[in-house]
What we know:
Blueprint: H1 2-25, H2 27-31, E1 33-34, E2 49-53, E3 56-61, E4 68-72, E5 76-77, H3 83-91, E6 95-99, H4 113-129, E7 135-140, H5 143-153, E8 158-162, H6 168-175, H7 181-184, H8 191-194, E9 201-207, H9 215-224, E10 229-234, H10 246-257
Parallel strand pairs: 1-5, 4-6, 4-7, 7-8, 8-9, 9-10
Antiparallel strand pairs: 2-3, 3-6
Amino acid sequence: MKRKTIRALSIFIFLYVTFGIYLSLNQTKVVYHPSPQDFASCEYFADAQKVNHQGTRMYVETNEKKPTVILYHGNAGSACNRYFYADMFSQAGYGYIVVEYAGYSNDTQAPSHALIKQDVESVVSYLDDYQLSSVYVVGVSIGTGAATYHTSLKAPEKLLLISPFTDLQAVAKDRFWFYPTSLLVDNAFDNVSALENYSGDTTIIHGTADTIIPYALGQELFQSLSGSKKLISIPEAGHNDLFRHAVMYQAINEFLEESP
């Protein structure tokens, strides 16, 4: 009995360590799930400019009379899949920039935290080059990390974070609580630190039943903010079904319409 117990424990330790090493070495594969959707042929953005600025691809439509809304999307699919956000922005009269990440939409690179930060830097450069100064920034899920990084580089007039987190280690800790995630996870996106010096208007939308990025992390981020802020909680909503709730559309429209 003792020998069987030792053997079982040895197997458990081996599997535990092996899986932990796998997670640490392949964390970007765990986080990012790109679609092979071709960027140039996206039918939903047929009328938008397809811009490549410093290697970063964007769907762009500008409106000189109203601000430009920049969207950093979530971890799965592609920017093409987020056409419905662009439709909401356009219908409200705003211009938009929907950013595609390195490694997505038939890009030959593998997506990574570092490359996505480079994409953000390219977007900021594009704004400077084309003097688009009136800007709102929207981040969704993992895209909130890109959005807050953007904010730390060039503060927008307003910021909207949908299903955000405090930092990546907190997300990993919730999902892989049985590992020392602080040692295994690259904490490349720290939304609390990125917004430390931001005093602009911030709106957070989060589903209370979110099991991917827990609602508690959105609450904690909200509490850390020092500027004007609003937390919109959607009862019973999870991570991927927010748009099944009418309040989601109302919240985005109010974000667009309210003066900063």
